[in-house]
Specification:
Largest interface: A-B, 46 and 46 residues
Strand content of chain A: under 5%
Helix content of chain A: over 70%
Shape of chain A: elongated
Oligomer: homodimer
Radius of gyration of chain A: 20 Å
Order of helices and strands of chain A: HHHHHHHHH
Number of strands of chain A: 0
Largest sheet of chain A: none
DNA sequence: GACATGCTAGACTCCCCAGTCTAGTTCGGT
DNA sequence: ACCGAACTAGACTGGGGAGTCTAGCATGTC
């Protein structure tokens, strides 16, 4: 009999951690998974390890396909912008931060790995993309890494803060995204 | 005999919540304050209320004086930028977010108030400041509120994310601030 | 001196939870 | 038919924490 229930437990744990943070009890996770508590411990040695596994899954989800973008720079950036905003500002992206951040001091090495595998990796790819655009004369030449971080910062920085505090955003999403991308393009016009 | 120990409790609770989050026990707070547990409950009806009080104090600290800035726009923005980065990216600013954010779902009304009294108020003031600069022809005319949010976003957005995950920033602070401010000025040049 | 108030030490109740243990069930492989 | 692996329900242990209670101490006021 193969290990059938690992996935069920992981899914239940994810949803539970996302709504109640590390507070979620193992009993509750087992109940949500429709599984005995003992089964949870058959697959994961401790609550901490289960949590880490969930956190790894969650932070990987902000990564975005970036290759084979359209020729047009603005169209390419718009595609990234829409995708990143959707992932990061969506209910799950916000809940992920609320869940993971308070545990950072307890798992410093894991936290650095989470950043590197998620947002950090995106910065690297985006920097490479911007660097090519700079080489092609479509953008002013400057540190591409900084440009990437500035772009992502203006794209979601303040909206993320608002949503983390439970404050909604009124403006229409599509329009806002476009205005920010145009703002970036003006700042880095050749 | 006046209520001497309220402040001691508040300070101890602040430092305790900042390091261990809501996990901190009332016993520990009392111990840190050098005070009996009962004294804590004489001043605050419950741990939740004590926590709320601490959260209110903490989030007020991101507000920045903005009036009577220098005539020169760039100098004025640099002043805001330095002050905001220092508050938001400093160890205490980061710890504040790690402490407060996970509790947002439990205290939604409080959370909105915290945002409004801290970062939200700053956005309003900054928008007014930028609006004046637009009127004086020093900046391109555009929605000042959006401009303020974009400015703050590019200023701290990605660096805050990094620090929240415990990832340090290598570049020299002063230089980075200046580059971001210049980037904003280019984007909003008349 | 009498009294109220702010405080102290520490015990105590009640509840929750991580992790373990027991005893039994289901099911696939051989 | 039998074994072993995955699973179940539920009891149990040990620890910790919120909030209460008691008994007493210190100090300022009348």
């Amino acid at each position: 009999m193969p290990q059938i229930h690992r996935e069920r437990v992981l899914r239940a744990a994810t949803s539970s951690f996302l709504t109640r943070g590390y507070r979620s009890s193992v009993d509750e996770i087992a109940r949500r998974a429709g599984v005995a508590k003992q089964t949870v411990y058959q697959h994961f040695p401790s609550k901490d390890e289960l949590f880490k596994e969930v956190a790894r899954d969650l932070t990987r989800r902000v990564l975005i396909e970036l290759d084979a973008g359209p020729r047009d720079l603005r169209a390419g950036l718009m595609r990234v912008a829409r995708a990143y905003r959707k992932r990061v500002l969506g209910a799950q992206g916000i809940a992920t931060l609320r869940t993971v951040l308070p545990e950072v001091p307890r798992f410093p090495a894991l936290a650095r790995a989470l950043y590197a595998g998620g947002a950090g990796a995106l910065v690297s790819r985006l920097a490479a993309y911007l660097s090519r655009a700079m080489g092609a004369g479509k953008l002013r030449r400057d540190d591409p890494e900084l440009a990437a971080e500035i772009f992502l910062g203006m794209l979601v920085g303040h909206d993320r803060l608002k949503r983390l505090f439970g404050v909604g955003c009124d403006e229409k999403e599509a329009r806002r995204t476009a205005r920010i991308v145009d703002c970036f393009l003006r700042a880095y016009a050749p």
